[in-house]
## 1
Amino acid sequence: MDFLACGLAVGSSNIADIIVINTCSVTRAADAKSRHLVRMLRALNPGSTIAVTGCYAERAGNDLIDCGADVVCGNRDKAALAESLAARPVQRSSRAAARGSERVRSFIKIQDGCDRFCSYCIVPLVRPLKYSVNADTVVEVVRSRVADGYKEIVLTGTEIGSYSSNGLHLIDLIRRILRETAVARLHLTSLQPMEITLELLALWQDKRLCRHFHIALQSGSDKVLRLMGRRYSTDTFRQSAAMVRASVPDASVTTDIIVGFPGESDEDFKTSLEFCRLMQFSALHIFPYSSRPGTAAAHMSERVNEHIKKQRSGIMLQLAAVSADEFAGRFIGRTREVLWENEVRPGSQIFSGLTDNYIRVYTRSGSDITNTISGTRLLDRSGASVPSFISRSKKRRQGRLWGEVSI
């Protein structure tokens, strides 16, 4: 789905003739957010063409038409979406100026589909066919994005650890990208615990690979993992995380946690909470269990009521905040490479960026440092002159540091 190849400039939704929304349907909340986004963008852009694709579009496209979408395209037809939109009678030439101003990080899908059928997950039902993009194509796209000015390339997909194309696997693809392109930073999305190997981790000797590992957990209780149909135990996960930290110094390890899964008792939750505390994650993404039609978990008994789910989410979020602060605190006084993303407010001269191990950093600069990578000394905010619009937000304080550009 290459919009630029079809003559469609990529820019901001504020000035768009065509708006494309790629939806998720993994939870009820994701569905609700997709519907809200379609309604909001329809109200803000009454004359634009709104196209919706992704898993929600595959599962319940009529819902999105009712919200104001003009085009609904499921996952099976996503590849042809750009070409079909380019054929629509819209004015595109005046929008070309929108390109180029936000080129910091580019996501490249290298794989799609999943056949694991975890008991809670709808993805295998809406993305049933597994495929991997040809390695030559991926390398060429990376070269193109680098030539367009992107500093960081993110390899993404439903399950990138299962990448396989013409006998090449994820390790082979990474090697080729590092060898054959001038990418400044290469970042991987989520991996499964059993996909972490010493051979894979040896690639991180190349400092262009971001030292951030998102490893799927879902629960710190072995009983709940079995109910979920996950193919590993907490011991397997512990060993994988330990391997990462031993092989890649200063690595950030993050994960996803589902709370309130059917059959999760108070004791199971306490076990999961304690496991997450021991793992010392730098970030935790917390999701209350959401029943998805057609999945095995939708028919399970021993439901956890919504009030308890909310309580457990709150407790886990408190741990997430503490863990993020503790991880970031280890780097105070040290210098790390930061990719600066944007000025947080026009004219503020305050810029936001991410270190190579994905700590959020802010700095003050009289010149525009957007889309540059610089060595930055990390400071505790309490000792820095931090603007009130940043410091007053509790959420922004968690796991965030102030930076002083030194190189």
## 2
Amino acid sequence: MSTAAAEIRKLAHQLGVASADLDFLEKLAADDLRELRARIGDYLFEADRHHFSKVATVSRLVPNAVAAKVTEFALPPLIAARTAELLEPAKAADMVGRLSDRYLADVSAAMDPTRCPQVIAQIPPTSVAKVGAELARRKEWVVMGGFVSVVSGPALRASVAELHGEQLLHVGYVLDDLSRMDEITQLLTDSQLDEMLCAAVAHQLWDELDGVLSHLTGAQAQRIAGRCAAAPEPIRVAIVASPLGASARTALAL
């Protein structure tokens, strides 16, 4: 599956439809699909801005503890997400620390992280990791792939430590910021890398493995090539016979 197909998966998530419903877009370039997704996001944000801007104004006038309790009790996750995007980063981050992990996962699924990077950067790594684990349990791969673009280094490290190989493949395939692929791989243990290779074979996740490997460079590509060479023979044989692309095969030194 190409990068364009990964973008279609992200767009489908944004629109709340199945990826198959957008198959007619598969011939478009990945950059064009990315631009389309950004424009749709801007439209959706502006279309409902008058609703959540009022909520943000009220939130600024009450203590954070009160605002947090009211938010979780009364606000749908989408409104809470949009409100957070309009609050001062320090206030929004403080409120995040007062909300349950489950509700934060609901809000994260509705949030565009690129609209509030300063807020996300201030959330403690342990909180980010807990929400990430909950999102992984829900298989919210596109949501997680979007947040990787803006989380801090310590938060990324804490989150990666909570994931197993199959989850890492799913998230890696839909990363918004592919430049962090090497950084993420550097954080992985040898066991996690082995799990990724085994998961690709066991669940036929060749598109996901291809997407991850195609964006590795240098030492991290060499490292996973070493894990592949050391894998049990059935795993190596399956990988050699798989439909991986040229870039992925180069990363695995096949």
## 3
Amino acid sequence: MYKVLTNGTIYTGDNCITGKSIVIRDDHIEAILANRSVPKDAEIIDCQGNNISPGFIDLQIAGAGGYLFSSNLNGKALRAITESIVKSGTTGFLIVLPTNSPDVYPAAIKTIKENPDPAVLGLHLEGPFINPSRRGAHAVEYIKKPAKEEIDQLLNDAAGIVKMVTVAPELCTREIIEQISGYGIVVCAGHSNATFEEAMNGFSWGIKAVTHLFNAMSPMHHRDTGLPGAAFQSENILASIVADGIHVDYGMISIARRLLKEKLYLVSDAVEASSEAAVQHVRQNDSFTLPDGTLSGSALTMMKAVQNCVERVGIPVDETLRMASTYPAKLMNLKNIGKIKPGFKADLVIFDKNFKVRIVIKEGKTILPDSFI
């Protein structure tokens, strides 16, 4: 049975197409055709002039649907988190585990192993190998220096579940970064007080990206540009950014976009309220803080981040959508998602001119957000 999306503006990740239809067969995109050429026996979905984008890919999200993953390491919570995220337009994500007690890491890995879902791309370990002076909302008592034996034990047990690790490059030797990379993991720099030189060394040893640019890292200064300056100077390093206007001012997002171009991508860094000792998050209208007022995670969805970048930063729609899908897919070397292209997974989000999600399609299956059922 074919499914055909018609009457929409298609943002493929390469260009913008109008007057054509997307033909879906089973779980993949089979073709993009002129409207008159679609299969006659297909299920037709009229997109009513709305926008069609690749499903969003969020490489840093800690919770959704009323659950913070690190505080609820069970299948019920993971399913609720996944359902909420997918309905918001994000069809693939790394669930992030911040610095935590040693027993939490194997429990998180076990939960993901035992509850597989195509939207859950794996685990992002944000810590514990970070700089205490730039810990942000991370629990200082669990931060540690990286040790080769401990890393091998953790990642061997993970059996491919861990896809991304954020470290402070100034605390890592070349051997440590190469060791983590050797597991097929994308190593990122973050929660770091690295100087420009220390950051550039980390990049040359295999670090591929910077986690939540500007937040919890050495600041840019005209006498030492720190980790942000190293990211701007590097030809290959990507950087994620939290586009809520709280974690990073919209003016600074604009500057970062001008400098990094296609190397800047969006993450939500979204959390949920929690009173657990290692992961306390208190809701403050449109963000979260620790009980002492320290800024922690966001209340963003990727759709809202896209809207903010278009309406508040002035980034064109097509480029913002790439920041939310194509660029993170490229960083993670995901060959069949992040674009609307024949042979790619049928992971799509249809949204209106007000950036409201109307329909989500995950591997060819139609999902309606609750507000539109």
## 4
Amino acid sequence: MSRASRGSEAGVGIGLIGFGTIGTGVAKVLHNNRDVICKRLGFPLRLVRIADLDLESERGVDLGGIQFDADAAGLIADPEVEIVIELVGGYDVARRFTLDAVAAGKPVVTANKALLAVHGREIFEAAQQQGVDIAFEASVGGGIPILRALREGLAANHIDSLHGILNGTTNYVLTEMEATGESIEVVLKRAQDLGYAEADPSFDVDGVDAAHKLALLAAMAFGVEIHFDEIHSEGIRGLVPLDFEMAREFGYSVKLLGIAKLRAGEAGDRIEVRVHPALIPRASLLASVDGAMNAVAVHGDAVGPTLYYGAGAGELPTASAVVADLMEIARELRRGNSGRVAPLSYPHACLERKPLVPLDELYARCYLRFTAVDRPGVLAHITGALGDRGIGIESVIQRGMAASAGAVSVVVLTHAASESDVRGATQYIDGLPDVEAPTLLLRVEEEA
């Protein structure tokens, strides 16, 4: 019996590898929303098999006779499983399961942005050769359909830029620091207690998770191959409560942004990609995205500015995106089609390698916080070093005692200047005998 006829009679069989938080959410959505799913498709999605190493933990889900064991290889080989969901996470094991499923001729749905950011080329090429789909809406933005919007809804546009709040953990931490004036250590501990942050939050607070997601977004927006390790990434560990106070005084909020822009030029297009905390105008839509929420602002030449907002993580929002991918693939299986729209919006052969804009070429206003000994002449040394490199100063504010005894914080908001000039000035200033800590540099992103 063909897949198409089997799907029309008994629905499409689903196999789930990884029965953690998101996998549990997928099982709940498939069970609780089975009626609306069936009505929208015209046939049911049947979760027929689950594989996970942990067979003892209580998930709060009635499996109702669904086969549940640790045999992922058996699940992939099972003829009743027509679509495989990979929710193992990480790199090596997830890569192996995904490639094994593709080799078996089965489409794969995943929420694993790290896997695709690092091994995407290999996986997409294998899927293309086998004529099967790789779907990954849940990998960026949780329940926000941002990838579907880029892949299909905005497909007629030249995308000019995108700015994203892509990590709910860091956005929660920054929101709380701004609201309470507490240190990052205090707020991060609260985020861990609430389940927003992992025991080791490094991927989140160091910007790695956001960079994984930005690699996928930039590829879909601009039709380019972006290697994850090419993305300049900075985290939020260096921020202190004073930075939020000063940002507010200047009319800004502090957000960790993933930024991608297309820079057209006579010599050809270049791509600007970076992840870092930035000051954005308090009147902007992204500035109002608080807590653990995510948002992505996309500007297209035809559509203009658009904004996609919602829960970027969590059991049910992420499961919502996984099941949406299942439904889309199941429709194609029933129709007998071998593929949907290309996973990255562009056919793999049309993806290009375009040069990236070096960080030194950025030109923006900057927020600089210096930690200096409180004695006459120090402020003149700092402002003089900036002026010597042609960096105009918009505001200078000195605030009380810093962390080091006898030191103060000097905050400078500059006029627009090149990154190379600002870096050169701060490197020189950091070497002054009266400066006691490395300079904090935050870029001002007016377009966000």
